[in-house]
Amino acid sequence: MKGKGTVMMALAAVLCLVLAGSVQAQAPAAKNVVIGFTASQTGKLNVEGMRQINGLNLWMERVNAAGGVKLADGSVVKFTSKFYDDESNKGRVQEFYTKLINDDKANFLVSPYSSGLTDAAAVIAQQNNRIMITAGAASDSTYKKGFTLVYQTYTPASRYLTGAVDILAKLDPKAKKIAIVHEKDKFSTDVVNDLKQYAEGKGYQIVLFEGYDAGTTDFAPFINKFPKDVDAIMGGGHFADTSTFAKQLHEKGIKPTVVALLVAPPEPKFAELGEAAVGIIGASQWEPAAKYSPEAAKAKNLEWFGPTVAEFVEAYTKKFNEEPSYHSAGGFVAGLLIEKAIAKAGSIDTEKVKAALDAMDIMTFYGHLKFDNTPAAHGLQVGHDMIYIQWQKDPKGALVKEVVWPEEAKTKDVIPMPKKK
Amino acid sequence: MQLLTSLIDGLLIGFVYGVAAVGLTLIWGVMSVINLSHGPVMALGMFSTYLLFTNLGVNPYLALIAVAVFGLVLGLVIYAVAVHRVISAPHLSSLLATFAVNMIIIGIGTAVFSTSPHNIDFSLGSIYLGPIILPAARLLAAVAAILFTVLLYLFLYFTRPGKAIRAVANNRMAAELMGIPSAQVLALSFGIGTALAAVAGGLIATFFPFTILSGGPYELKSFVICVLGGLGNPLGALLGGLLLGGLEGLIPTFMPVSWVPVLEFGLFILVLLVKPSGLLGAKT
Predict the structure, then answer these.
(1) A214: nearest CA in chain B?
(2) Which of A300, B28, B35, B114 is spaced 20 to 30 A from B280 at the CA atom?
């Protein structure tokens, strides 16, 4: 009997060793998490869409190269992507996101570029219980439809230009009159409606509030209507019309304290306006010159996560041979948010990752990120601020794009428009 | 003061509208062809000025001479290829032929230049007349527009080819019987019409950004102006241009700018109803 017992114990010991060995052998095996999205590789949004995807791919490359994300059970998660070309077409987006979820078994989703396409995709994500991080989608309305799994990386349209009012208050506390002239498309109209409300709430008088059609080239009829003592001119629309507007303001000698316009000023091509560009302020989701840093995060009592601005810009420029735009930064940060949320949740379970996203309050190279948790606007970005750039002249007289707002990102102090000589 | 500034702004641009419309009305007056390639030719005028300025450093106002020659040659080519064979056919044929030219120019232009806006980076600054500030580019454009109109007038009234054009416009058959080679005169008229369109495009390019599609709105304005002034009447077209420009300047001082096209086209319909021959009477 004794001999039999010894044999049994020896067998048990061997079994334990084998089992332990198998557990040890299984632990490093990486789980594969699929990030699904559609990319506007073709169609009218292909430039912005591709930059967003470049940013996302760069994030994926970096996180996988760094060994992935470790979960609570000790296992490691690595990421792969699955995507289709949506042709910048709203009609194709829903079909592809359904396919990504059902056929390709995507665990997490990233939105297409633009508010319109994202709005269509978000419904599918919510219906299929998948978390979607949206990039390139500034419109507020998507987050006011009762979705609980859609999270925004961009500063919403409603806060797109409101910082310009704060800049005006800083530059001239006595300023009273603001004129708003804007393109009559949905995005610009949404932005200026909220801007008007914000400015009026701060006690400013809106002396002109008028829209213009897409493709307008002659702004003299609007400019002639500005009162002589107008303190700020705000609005604009897309690149062509906004840069023409800025040029004609200069030709007409209109120099109020603040001129803040949509979309065009952050583009490097805006500098071609020469003297007409000096002093013009523009809003951008992100700029490579932004000074977000771990120190700035500490000062605001926030956790820092991910690469620094310089690291991101260097890695992106090296890989794609161009400086990253805010579209690229948006794509990267969408991935970064998924990474951080999985790391915090220690799981890839939708509910646990959702809880981590709901509690998210961090600073990255892209700025502060925090989401609205109220049922009325769940997922709306409430932490991130627009970056305001201003074209200024360096000591040699060359035009330089400086980040002037918010304080934690600025490279130079904001200046009033130089008055005509 | 705002009223005066707006009126002057409108009138200055009205001169340029006028030149474009004179080109269109000349073609109509001489050969009864509604030229739907007028807009794209204006856009080519914009790009010609742009290319001469950007690549060769030619002053945009001097470049207008080359642009006029280019427009003339282009007009002769368009006439020979697309218009000549259908000149005696019903209006629909020439309408479709010039529309085809319109599509070809836009197609090639889009492939070559894309539809991204281009801009001639040539600033002349502004002229300060007391409280009135006028962009110098608009003032020069108006002067150039007047100059080209005077040249056209001198050509039509004091040169043999000019007189031949007027004779053909008046009565083609009678002119042919008098030994005027009508085919050559028609080609020349088409050439001069497109040259004026190209020049108008070149002038617009000196102060507004443009794409290959930018000629469209000006072509539409040219039609309105021609009807206002009287189809086929060059002087009427110039005055119609001034009237339209003046309205575009004045209307926004009383109401939102978006009302401008409403009132413009309202006036267009009113003229068609009340005086279809135009304010100065059409040449038949």
Answers:
(1) B258
(2) B35
One fold for A30-155+290-377 and A159-284+386-409: yes
pLDDT of residue A1: 45
- Do the chains contact at B135 and A240, CB–CB below 8 Å? no
User: Each residue of A349-377: pLDDT tens digit?
Assistant: 999 999 999 999 999 999 999 999 999 99
The alpha-helical segments, DSSP class H, found in B32-135 are 38-56, 60-78, 91-113
Q: With contact defined as beta carbons under 8 Å apart, do A310 and A289 qualify?
A: no
CB-neighbour burial class of residue A170 (10 A; exposed 0-12, middle 13-18, buried 19+): middle
pLDDT of res. A29: 66
User: What's the gap in Å between the CA of B264 and the closest CA on chain A?
Assistant: 15
Among B214, B203, B196, smallest CA distance to B72 is for B196
Q: Residue B152 maps to which CATH number?
A: 1.10.3470
Instruction: Mark yes or no for CB contact A243/B119 under 8 Å.
Output: yes
Task: Encode pLDDT of A184-241 as tens digits.
Answer: 887 788 899 999 999 999 999 999 999 998 878 889 999 999 998 999 999 998 888 8
pLDDT in tens, B26-62: 998 888 888 999 999 999 999 999 999 999 999 999 9
Question: How close is the nearest chain B Cα to the Cα of A174, in Å?
Answer: 25
In a domain, B116, yes or no: yes
- Domain limits, chain A: 30-155+290-377, 159-284+386-409
Which range marks the domain in which residue B48 is found?
2-274
A268, two tokens? 């490097």
Note whether A244 contacts B208, CB cutoff 8 Å: yes
List pLDDT tens digits, range B132-174: 888 888 899 999 999 988 999 899 899 999 999 989 888 888 9
B279 in a domain, yes or no? Answer: no
Name the residue among A212, A240, A252 with its Cβ closest to that of B117. Answer: A240
CATH of domain A30-155+290-377: 3.40.50.2300
Q: How many domains does one find in chain B?
A: 1
DSSP B232: T
- Which CATH number among 3.40.50.2300, 2.40.10.270, 1.10.230.10, 3.30.420.40 corresponds to the domain A159-284+386-409? 3.40.50.2300
